[in-house]
Every structure is written in C-alpha cells, then in structure tokens.
Amino acid sequence: MRFAKDGVPVIVAALFLSLVLVLIGWLLNNSASLPLYLVAVFISGFTLFFFRDPERNIPEGSYILAPADGKIISIEQVREDIYLGAPAKQISIFLSIMDVHVNRYPVSGKVEHVTYHPGKYLVAWHPKASELNERAEFGVVHESGLKVFFRQITGLVARRIVFHTREGDEVRAGDRFGLMKFGSRMDILLPADMEVLVKTGDKTIGGETIIAKLD
Predict the structure, then answer these.
(1) What is the pTM of this model?
(2) Which of 68, 80, 87, 124 is an S-S bond match for 192, by CB 3.0 to 4.6 Å?
(3) 63-213 has which fold?
C-alpha cells in the first residue's frame, strides 16, 4: 500500500504515539492496559487509512477529470473573475474523512495561476466556504486554449493544505499535486457552456472520474 508522502510526518508521529501507549499498557499490566492497546491500534490504523494513496487508472484521451475522491454536492453557474474572467460552471466535491485526500490535476496543460489564501474554517459545504475558508487556487490552460480553474478548500476539520504546484509547470491530468488533511472540499470551474458528464450526488474518484470531454 502506498501512502501520501506529505502524510509521512503525521504517520511517524502517530506510530510513535501508539508505541508509547503500548509500552505504557505493558508496564501497567492491569485493567487499564487493554484500553491503551485499543487506542494505539485506532490511532495507527486510522492514520494509515487516511493517508493511503492508491494508484489510479487514468483514462486515455482529452478529458477533464475529477481532482479528488468524494461526492458532488453542487453544480452551479457562477461568475469567476480570478482566472477565467467569465461566467463558469462550478462543480464542488466534498471529501469526507473516509475519502482518499490526495488531489490530482483535472486537466493537462500549463499552470498559469497559483495563489494561497489564509482564511476561516466554515464547514466545507457552506456556500461561502469557497470565498472565506483557507484555500489554494490554481489555473491551468490546456493546449487547446481552454482554461480550467480549481481550488483546494479547508473545512471545519481540515486545517492543512499541501500542494506542489508552481506557475509555469507543465502538468498532466491525473497526476498528483497535493493533499488536504482531514476532510475538505475541491471546486473545479469550467467554461459555462461546457457539457458536464456528472451530476449532484455522484461519487467521484480522483484521476479516474470524467467530468467533461475536451473534444
């Protein structure tokens, strides 16, 4: 099983804490030992589960792919003036604490825009989360000239955004680019007239689910 490299420090800390709890339980050797063992197993097991990073079967062809695992909570028409500078169709994906939290590029092309905004920690499905919460925003232009805007957004529990993207990078749809820790949301914004192949309530698999076709 592969684990997210950005989660390694947390995994190491969790395993160390679990080891300490097991040692304390062993030294006590009484009725308190079993609860300590169970807590140790939970901490280590959950941490390894959360930071799992499975390989994905990335579709061949020119597609817009889901940037994250989760559930589509809304598809709406908005005005996007940061990168697209036009009306857009916004697809919002909510990541529960049980979903894989490694994020992937939704489209191939050149990164033209990267910004990070500190902010609040509203619940991820709050309508204002995309404007007020801590977030990182990215703009990629496909070789066809089509522009795609997407963002990582923290939620009530998620308090850490990690990304490895710089302006000028050439990227491929489906490749890993970052991680959101402990529940969050991804927005992807496309031209308003683009046909979307998913609907509200659908489950997505990052790097596999096709959001739209480019040709």
Answers:
(1) 0.87
(2) 87
(3) Glucose Permease (Domain IIA) (2.70.70)
